[in-house]
Amino acid sequence: MFFQMGSIISKMNPIRITDRISYIPATEPPLSADVGIVEGDSAVYFFDVGSNEEVAEFIKNYDTGLGLDGERKKKIAVISHFHTDHTANLTRIEFDKIYLGKTTLKYFSIIRGSQSLHEAHETETPKLAAESGIPFEERCEVVTDTIEIEDGIKITIGEIPSSHSKGSVYMLAGRHAFLGDATFYGYKREKKFYNAQLLQQELAVLKELDADFFMLSHRKHFAKQKRSVMSLLEQIYKSRKQNESEIEIF
To answer: What span, in angstroms and rounded, lies between the C-alpha atoms of 219 and 145?
Structure first.
């Protein structure tokens, strides 16, 4: 159950978690990650943007409302990692600002072509949405140190080690930590595994997150109790064999 996919949704009906936090469930097909939505006083924060075109239309048409200053709230994206099920809609949506990891930005730095991100695995030339004329990279902020934002709700954005994807990023909003696929295993020649050192480092980061719930993409239940996720990952780490750098998952 820990890695079970969410069900397919035919309409974009966000599921509300708190008065400020909601999410759009993952879909398959096409494989499209859960999208977290956090309502701040000056901006709406979208954690991951998915690949489903219906999700893109929903985000594009999302009424952010007015901030405390009377100006329309900004749309800000926080991207967990570069995999297309989390990022493909960046070709369809222009955000005011995008927080992402160095590896993810490197993946998107080749923006000269016209292919979609779905094709980018082969062509590596994705074209990213920039209707305002502001280049994609100028709207990005690479997450290297922990970023803290007070916006009616406390938001913390930081790096998290992951066997699944290098350069992963988390977002802590209130008591809910959005992790994307960071707790997933990695793949190598059809083998499922955790890198023991990275898992140890990841556990250290997760332990320090002041959260009650971990939001894990592609699961049947998006919100998981922190203690249950930590317990499972700790069990996996304890199962490592001496002098072996990888922990194989069967």
So the answer is: 28
β-strand 168-173 against 147-150: which pairing, if any? unpaired
Alpha helix segments (H runs only) across the chain: 53-60, 84-87, 102-108, 117-123, 196-208, 226-238
Residue-by-residue DSSP string for 73-99: PEEEEE---S-HHHHGGGGT---SEEE
Residues 195-249: pLDDT tens digits? 999 999 999 999 999 999 999 999 888 999 999 999 999 999 999 999 999 999 9
CA atoms within 13 A on the CB side of 231: 6
Token match 């082969």: residue?
A: 122
Rounded-to-integer distance, Cα 199 and Cα 206, Å: 10
In whole angstroms, give the CA distance from residue 115 to residue 126. Answer: 5
H helix or E strand, kind and range, residue 38: strand 35-39
User: 157: Cβ–Cβ under 8 A, 6 or more apart, which residues?
Assistant: 78, 99, 143, 146, 147, 149, 169, 170, 171, 172
Q: pTM surpassing 0.70?
A: yes
- Alpha carbon distance, N-terminus to C-terminus of the chain: 14
From residue 238, alpha-carbon distances to 194, 216, 225 in Å are: 12, 22, 20
Q: What pLDDT digit, counting tens, does each position of 74-125 carry?
A: 999 999 999 999 999 998 999 999 999 999 998 887 543 334 444 544 444 4
